[in-house]
């Protein structure tokens, strides 16, 4: 006998579909996806707020990042110091026959009305103890063949707080060359000459350390004590003739994720995946409850979707925020910028002076010369963290065409330095 199959017809219940709302609500995977998505979105929103000052971050906001906070406070202190110095008649003399450090500041007149050098000198001196000030030989350098071209030349405060106001004391041949540089706007050549000339005059003071500052920076309160500590650390790390400088300023924009290190980044990401996967498997083996709820699909969601999403967010947050440099002294032979402030050991200065003289007719910036020479001579370079200086010169001393880069040469961490608004 042949039997015919019976087909029972009836209405299809959509609630039995794995994609129905009822099924989705019952699914632990759906709840896990929703929870992780909310967590990722909340973290993303936090990053938008927390890392807006990090120039290496996807969330960087220039309006917020370049906002002046501490530098405005420090600038006010500096100008108050300069105004008070106008009533001083006797310049301070170092107590030591050979000062601890000579600070050289080459300055040229800006095309704008503001001459930043007043803030530079005022911030360097403000807050120093008498002992600290007496250990410093301060030497501003009016880098004009006609010094009266600079607006501060006849200001009473300049002579009152300087150990020496340096002018050109050069041969007629050199003066003619300098005038040619000035008239022809050969800024690189002249700045190289000026750098070597100021180094030489600072070296003649017998100072153990030569500090070279640009004329549009602000020094952070407490810079002197931190400098002494940093130099002591470096001396324990290397000999005086084995390194070139201690950098007082750097910009975080060059410290982002580097393409040369992507293999290492991938390696750590893969290790994170393996660790998380092993942890989930181990937890599921030991926990009966997880054996029921932590399905293979859930593990796929966590390890192959959520983890990569949060790793991407980690890199979006920026290297300066995720892997900040610890406070103290670090070797920085790459990614350093620019020439706002260096401290040179006395032992290296004669060789550096000779090198600047050779490069005077070459198309170099000072920082380019230093880096190339250090690479060729295998000299170590160090940086002090956090930055001791902030660059505030929105108008470049090099003239037209350089203002855009000048305005973005910035240390973002400097502005977060704590201060009391009631301080004077």
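Sequence proposed for the structure above (424 residues):
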């Amino acid at each position: 006998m042949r039997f015919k199959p019976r087909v029972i017809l009836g209405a299809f219940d959509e609630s039995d579909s794995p994609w129905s709302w009822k099924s989705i609500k019952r699914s632990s995977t759906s709840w896990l996806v929703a929870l992780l998505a909310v967590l990722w979105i909340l973290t993303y929103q936090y990053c938008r707020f927390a890392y807006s000052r990090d120039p290496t971050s996807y969330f960087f906001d220039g309006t917020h990042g370049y906002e002046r906070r501490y530098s405005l406070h420090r600038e006010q202190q500096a100008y108050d110091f300069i105004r008070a110095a106008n009533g001083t008649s006797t310049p301070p003399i170092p107590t030591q026959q050979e000062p601890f450090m000579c600070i050289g500041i080459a300055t040229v007149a800006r095309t704008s009305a503001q001459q930043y050098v007043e803030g530079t000198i005022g911030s360097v001196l403000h807050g120093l103890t008498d002992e600290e000030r007496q250990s410093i030989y301060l030497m501003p350098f009016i880098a004009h063949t006609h010094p009266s071209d600079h607006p501060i030349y006849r200001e009473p405060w300049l002579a009152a707080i300087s150990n020496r106001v340096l002018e050109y004391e050069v041969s007629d041949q050199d003066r003619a060359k300098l005038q040619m540089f000035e008239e022809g706007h050969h800024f690189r050549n002249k700045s190289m000459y000026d750098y070597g000339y100021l180094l030489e005059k600072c070296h003649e003071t017998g100072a153990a350390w030569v500090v070279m500052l640009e004329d549009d920076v602000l020094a952070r309160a407490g810079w002197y004590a931190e400098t002494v500590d940093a130099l002591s650390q470096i001396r324990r790390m290397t000999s005086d003739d084995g390194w070139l400088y201690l950098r007082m300023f750097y910009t975080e924009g060059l410290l982002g994720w580097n393409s040369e290190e992507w293999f290492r980044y991938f390696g750590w990401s893969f290790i994170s995946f393996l660790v998380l996967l092993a942890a989930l498997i181990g937890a599921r083996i030991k926990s009966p409850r997880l054996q029921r709820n932590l399905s293979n699909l859930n593990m796929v969601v966590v390890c192959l979707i959520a983890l990569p999403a949060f790793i991407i967010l980690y890199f979006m947050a920026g290297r300066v925020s995720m892997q900040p440099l610890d406070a103290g002294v670090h070797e920085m032979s790459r990614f350093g910028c620019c020439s706002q402030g260096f401290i040179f050991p006395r032992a290296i200065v004669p060789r550096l002076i000779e090198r600047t003289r050779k490069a005077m007719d070459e198309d170099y910036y000072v920082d380019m010369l230093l880096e190339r020479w250090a690479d060729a001579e295998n000299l170590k370079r160090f940086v002090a963290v956090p930055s001791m200086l902030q660059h505030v010169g929105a108008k470049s001393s090099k003239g037209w065409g350089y203002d855009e880069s000048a305005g973005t040469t910035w240390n973002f961490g400097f502005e977060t330095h704590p201060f009391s608004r009631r301080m004077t």
